[in-house]
Amino acid sequence: METLFAIRELFxxxxxxxxxxxxxxxxxxxxxxxITKYDSEDEDxxxxxxxxxxxxxxxxxxxxxxxxxxxxxxxxxxxxxxIVLPPYSVRIIDVLYEITKESxxxxxxxxxSVYANLVNADMNSPEYRYSALTNAQQxxxxxxxxxxxxxxxxxxxxxxxxxxxTSNEILSEHFDDYTKNILEQIYLPxxxxxxxxxxxxxxxxxxxxxxxxxxxxxxxxKSAYEKNRFSDYKEAESYVVDLIVVIIEYLNEVExxxxxxxxxxxxxxxxxxxxxxxxIYSNQSAKKKLTSILEVFxxxxxxxxxxxxxxxxxxxxxxxxxxxxxDSLFVRQSATAKEITEPQPIVISDIDESxxxxxxxENRIRSPFASSMVVEYVRELMGDENALDLEKWxxxxxxxxxxxxxxxxxxxxxxxxxxxxxxxxxxxSGRFNVPKTIFIRRRKL
Length: 445
Fold this sequence. Notes:
Elements: H1 2-13, E1 17-18, H2 19-31, H3 52-65, E2 70-73, E3 81-84, H4 87-100, H5 110-123, H6 129-163, H7 167-191, H8 196-212, H9 214-227, H10 233-282, H11 286-298, H12 302-312, H13 355-365, H14 371-382, E4 387-389, H15 398-410, E5 418-429, E6 432-441
Antiparallel strand pairs: 1-3, 2-3, 4-6, 5-6
Helix pairs in contact: 1-2, 2-3, 5-6, 5-8, 6-10, 7-10, 8-10, 9-10, 14-15
């Protein structure tokens, strides 16, 4: 592993990895006794214990045989040997390095990057709007993956708190590991400088403005057609619109993940506090005090023993005992057979006092103004269309108006099948003058 990490360091620093430089670096590692355990693999050859260069070449040959690296002669300087890494080897070494170096995690401001790219493309560089969309998709992919990993890691840490047995272990896990690597590097930036509430509105405003402008979509589709293999502009335009919708869905998913992480973070911090309190109080238990008393009597200090007898003589009946074993400090409970009795019959009354409550709950659920009924009503009105204009709803009475208000409010919930878009304009729908409102089906145009 140390050899692979040394190769990784040279790979990131130099265009070519010269074998002589690598051997020198590995020799310094051997002197620190990091990888001398490989010497024992060749017990018949005493040279492996004396010649570190032989050990290094042995390790490099093993890595080459297993496909981690390749060796070649330089084309510019005669017989000088270089180390070559296959692409898959670079990726695997990076993963191993990240696993062992968790303290070096650096948070990337994905939301700010998306916002900055979209604003710049919208105001100054229309030709880069397609690139801004693809970069936004990539940033959201990385951000959602990071958030999912964090959510799973919080569940693991919550379980770990219950396993730890000492205060020092919990303090080390919470402050040295979680606070430095997770709280300061990921969670706090996600709640402050790169908050979803800070950038979501501006990002949605830019994306919605592009969606409403056919000329903008046409320009982005032209850039997409030139950079990708689409059969025609129609296909490129459809891809661009779908890409914008996917980014909007990413925003909603990120918001849900942040809410879930908040819940798990609060539960984890609460578990740490409760476990610390439990451990601290347990140190003041009767068992701890009794142990302290016994330690004084076993110390051999007659003055301390006499003082303790005088202090506790009126409270504790102390007697000398020749030995202490598992049965000395408590009386073991005698085992008794469990008595098996006949089960008692369940008496069912003819009068059900909960009938009125059940009727009330059933009527409330089936009410035409219940949230589920309003959502189904919108689904029925929308039919196979992708959007429903409130102007075409034809609000003929007060009940229809209440349903429209409830449907508008529910549209801001990410769990329903549609979203609500309200404009500044006012329109007439049936008997009522209402704001121009459009109910748009999610995941479709």
